[in-house]
Amino acid sequence: MLLGSQLRRLREARGITRDAAGYVIRASESRISRMEMGRVSFKTRDVEDLLTLYGITDNAARGALVDLARDANLAGWWHRYSDVLPNWFATYVGLESAASLIRTFEVQLVPGLLQTEAYARAVISRSMRDVSAADIDRHVALRMERQKILLSENAPSLHIVLDEAVLHRTDGGRDVMHGQLRHLIELSENPNVQLQIMPFSFGGHAGESGAFTILGFLEYDLTDVVYVEQLTSALYLDRREDVAQYGRALKELQQESLGPDGSRDLLRELLRLP
After folding, report:
1. Domain boundaries, the chain
2. What is the largest CA-CA distance in the chain?
3. In the predicted model, what is the mean pLDDT of the chain?
4. What is each CA distance from 31 to 22, 24, 27, 168, 230, in whole angstroms?
5. CB of 218 within 8 A of CB of 209?
6. Is CATH 3.30.870 the classification given to domain 77-271?
7. What fold characterizes domain 2-72?
8. Which of 24, 142, 151, 197 is most buried, by the most CB atoms less than 10 A from its CB?
9. Under 8 Å CB-to-CB from 132, ≥6 apart: which residues?
């Protein structure tokens, strides 16, 4: 998806049609369309030929995109969980693993990257009532595996805004939720994690349309991707105008929410409740 969106922008900037691009790599217009949507694999030779057609001669710029093409054809660690991982979410896990900056607003649940194992199990068990215990275990293991990126050498910056409602939904019961709140306090003290809470006292805010995540990929100089999850699918938005609108909403949420210190104070207050 990242490579395809970049190739599409380069093609459009030069005013080249999909038919013309397809002719250069001996492919159809529909093949170029599927490449640009990230729905097919890439041959490095095709990418190199398209970059030449689009006038990209700088070695660094070409190298970054050719490397991305090679990476796109490798099986990620999450493919081990393909038996329980929907295709539409496998795409997200791949993007999450490559991101340099992850910005999230959540209104219902603690985001997966910040969940304790007990909280994750409670949430997954509730949402997948007809799934076997073994599959529940696989889903929980996948979620815990995803969290390893926060401790990796190239850990992304994680900026989270939580609606206060998230903190009052006691998934798994009081003990599980208290463990989750303590976990949020601990994680919020990591240098690459910024946690803010939108308090009830603020009233209406810029995130009333629902949860979303913005993924940034600074090392590839690519436009951010907005992820909006639905019940059985997800939207991936990379048009500049869409990304900009979500970016403005998140900036407003960050400005209007409690700061990191105030957010930790609120979490500590909730832990003292009976």
Report:
1. 2-72, 77-271
2. 69
3. 91
4. 7, 12, 6, 48, 28
5. no
6. yes
7. 434 Repressor (Amino-terminal Domain) (1.10.260)
8. 197
9. none
